[in-house]
Specification:
There is one protein chain. The protein has 104 residues and is mainly alpha-helical. 81% of the residues lie in helices and 0% in strands. The chain has helices spanning 2-10, 15-42, 47-53, 57-75, 77-89, 96-103. Helix 2 runs antiparallel to helix 4 (57-75) and helix 2 runs parallel beside helix 5 (77-89).
Length: 104
């Protein structure tokens, strides 16, 4: 990741760093989705884990935006970066389910 971020910072308008950056974030988010699905599966007996991690909508939206960023990066390099930033903004908003379960 640091290599890709540095390369992208030095060549912000180039196709190759944008494509690699979008592909790495797609893979990272795909890994995240697989991890939380496995956590829910392994902890099926724990209702708190299922309530907190069982809703995958935000992860699916992020993956969709990452795929879109990868495709757009082939044609408009800065467009892929903008879409990736938009996908990051989804995760800035905290999940209220965690706070509700924590306060119980």
């Amino acid at each position: 990741m640091p290599f890709t971020t540095n390369w992208l910072g030095d060549n912000i308008w180039a196709h190759d760093p944008e494509i690699l950056y979008a592909a790495l974030f797609l893979l990272a988010n795909l890994t995240w989705l697989c991890m939380i699905k496995n956590l829910v599966k392994v902890n099926a007996h724990n209702a708190c884990v299922t309530k907190i991690l069982g809703d995958y909508r935000k992860s699916y939206r992020t993956l969709l935006l990452n795929v879109l960023a990868l495709v757009i990066a082939f044609f408009v390099p800065i467009g892929g970066l903008i879409i990736n930033v938009l996908s990051f903004l989804l995760w800035v908003v905290p999940d209220k389910r965690i706070e509700k379960i924590k306060n119980k």
